[in-house]
Amino acid sequence: MFRRFVGAVVVGVALAATSGCTVPVDAVAGISVTGDGHLLGVMMVCGHQIDGATLYVDSDDVDKQVTVGSWTADRPLTAGLATWPLDSPATGWAATRSLAPLTAKTSYVLYGWTKDDSWSSSSVFFTLADRDRLTPGKVRYANISDNGDESAITVSIAEFKTRACPNT
């Protein structure tokens, strides 16, 4: 996990150095499950907006970061919590790429974005084993500590709503 985080930081710094800008993060992505075990996307928007979300296979090789699902909200998500099922049609969401079957021993990443690249969300990394440990009402997301360390944690939806956007 640490290697992946350092790799992501290195890539981000390289992109920032060559592009002169990065997409600011103003939302937190997470996952949850329904009562019957279906995967839910969870997005806590902190203050601006998010237009959609993408789920892809995590890989150090950018050519192997295959998109396995992508969704666009009918209206931009603004400050607050949004959830939607990833494997079936959902009111207020359009699947721009329907969810492909997920496989064991594969690491996935869910993140949020805007159409104009003005805002993004933090990403949540997970495997099917991580999903299988979730229970309804719980959210897995990447928590960043005061000293900058990132770790995946699972909390209640109520706690996620209060902790995900610490500066709001």
UniProtKB/TrEMBL annotation:
Query: What UniProt keywords apply to this chain's record, in alphabetical order?
Result: Signal
Which residues constitute the signal peptide according to the record? 1-16
Q: Does the keyword Signal apply?
A: yes
Q: Could you name the domain of life of the organism this protein comes from?
A: Bacteria
Protein name, per record: Lipoprotein
Per the UniProt entry, what species is this protein from, by scientific name? Streptomyces brasiliensis
